[in-house]
Amino acid sequence: MTTDTPRPPRIDTSKAHPARVYDWLLGGKDNYPVDEAVGERLPAEARDAARQNRQFMHRAAAWIAARGVDQFLDVGTGIPTEPNLHQIVQRLVPSARIVYADNDPIVLRHAEALLVSRPEGVTDYIEADVRRPDKIVRHAREILDFGRPVALSLIALMHFIPDEQDAHAIVRDLVATLPSGSYLVLSHAASDLYPELAAQVTAEYAKGGIRLGFRTRPEVARFFDGLELVEPGLVTATQWYGSDPAPEQPEGSGIYAGVARVP
Question: Given its phi and psi angles, is residue 143 left (phi above 0), alpha (psi -120 to 50 degrees) or beta?
C-alpha cells in the first residue's frame, strides 16, 4: 500500500466525523466521545441502516467480481471493518486491485495497517474528499487501468453532500472517467420512506456539526442517469440481492441501493 500523505495527519477529535460515527454504529472502537455522542442520540434504526449498508456492499462487490471485474475504486471507505471490500473481492479474484479513498485522517492510519492486499493483488489508499473527484481519479489512475472496467463504490456517502454542493455533478464527473463495462455501486439514505425518522436522524447529525442531504427515490435515481441498472433496479438495501432472489419478506430499510453498468 502507498499513500500520497507525506506526514502523519492531525486528527481533529473536537468534531464528529461521519466515518467515525458510522464505526460507532457498527459497534467499532475507532471513534471518539464526540462521535459517540452523535451515535447515542440516533434512533436504533440508524444501527440497522449501517449494518444493511455494509451487507449490501458485500453482496454487490461479490456480484461484480464474479463477473470478472478486477478493479475497484471505493470512495468514502470509512474505518476498516472486516470483511472489507478488498477481502470480499480478492476471495473471488485474488489479483484484484483496489483503491480506497476517504477524507478522515484516522481512516488513513487504519488503512495503512489493515487494508493489506493478497500477494497477487494490490490495495492502495488516498486521503481525499469526494468533492475533489479530479484528485481521486488522478491518484487512482496510478493504480488502476482506466482502459478496462472499474467498479466505483459510493456506499452511504452522497447523502453527506447537500444539494448546494451538487452531489449529482460529483457522481457524473466520477462516472464520466469510467470505460464501458464499468459499474457504479451506490447506496443512499431515503427521505421519503420513513420521513419522520429521516428528519430525526438529520437533526441529530446536525447537532454534531454534520450536514445531511437525504433524498427521495427519484432524486437518488438521478445518480444512475445514463447507466444501465442491473436487476432488481433501484430498491432498498435489503431487497438488492443481485442474481439471487431477495427474501420473501425482506427487513425494512430506509436506504436505497442500486448497481448500474456503464454502457
Answer: alpha
Domains, in order of start, for the chain? 18-242+251-261 (3.40.50.150)
Query: Per the structure block, which three cell numbers stand in for 47?
Result: 444501527
Mean pLDDT by 10 residues, the chain (263 residues): 46 81 86 90 92 95 96 90 89 95 81 76 91 96 97 97 95 98 98 96 93 97 98 96 82 96 98
* Cα–Cα dist 143/239, whole Å: 33
Please name which of 260, 250, 251 lies closest in space to residue 223, comparing C-alpha atoms: 260
Q: What is the pTM of this model?
A: 0.90
Alpha helices in 43-194 (DSSP H): 44-65, 85-92, 105-114, 133-140, 167-176
In this structure, are strands 97-102 and 71-75 parallel, antiparallel, or unpaired? Answer: parallel
Query: Do 125 and 112 meet the contact criterion of CB atoms below 8 Å apart?
Result: yes
Q: Give the DSSP per-residue string, 37-67.
A: HHHHHS-HHHHHHHHHHHHHHHHHHHHHHTT
Would you call the peptide bond into 133 cis, given omega within 30 degrees of 0 as the criterion? no
CA dihedral 204, 207, 208, 213 (to 10 degrees): 60
- Residue closest to 185 by CA, chosen among 94, 98, 91, 82: 98
Enclosing H/E stretch for 217: helix 217-221
Question: What radius of gyration do the chain's Cα atoms show?
Answer: 17
Burial of 190 (0-12, 13-18, 19+ CB in 10 A): buried
